[in-house]
Amino acid sequence: MKEAKIFNEWPQRYDRWFETPIGKLILYYESKLLLEMLRPKSGERILDAGCGTGVFTRCLLEDGPRFVGLDISFPMLFQAGKKLARYPFGMVQGDMEDLPFADNQFDKTISVTAFEFIVNARNAIDQLFRVTRPGGSIVVATLNSLSPWAARRKAAGEKGHPIFKNVIFRSPKEMNQLAPMTPLLKTAIHFQKHDEPLQAKKIEERGRSIDADTGAFLVARWEKPL
Which residues form the Methyltransferase type domain (predicted)? Predict the structure, then answer.
């Protein structure tokens, strides 16, 4: 799992980002959209593939589902385990492109900002479909290539940033092509990093009201056929 090495030194730094004023605002809007798309329910068994430090998993656990968090990086999983100790949350170290689960094991599956690091996204989607029961939902969130946030991170990668130098950002059109059926697509984070929080909230409300497809946080939801 050589890919895991680039994440192993990032757990604390990743979590600290969401403690900044703009990070807290981003976490609020992204979590809100994830809850809207995944609709977790009490008693459901849900896989969070590429769960990282569990930042988003925690908000999805509040309504009573049981989660399995999978990540390629053990330090990331360890951080998630500490954070989610009081929740019904199990951990598995593994690769999203070769999920270590039998078919139809989960009521729903979700992956948040992990597809950026997967070249063969179609294979990863196939894996999520495979382990999701018929009638279940598959939700994938990624950084939208149409957003200025993606452009900035791409530029940072070109300058040698260890996380972003091999990253792959996808557009709504590209996400639409990852599975045979058409997904529901929505975006959030229409404001920019430098925007003052009050102004950022106004920008976000406007972006959601017109259903803009250029928000930085792109979320797709597929329903697995019965």
Answer: 47-140
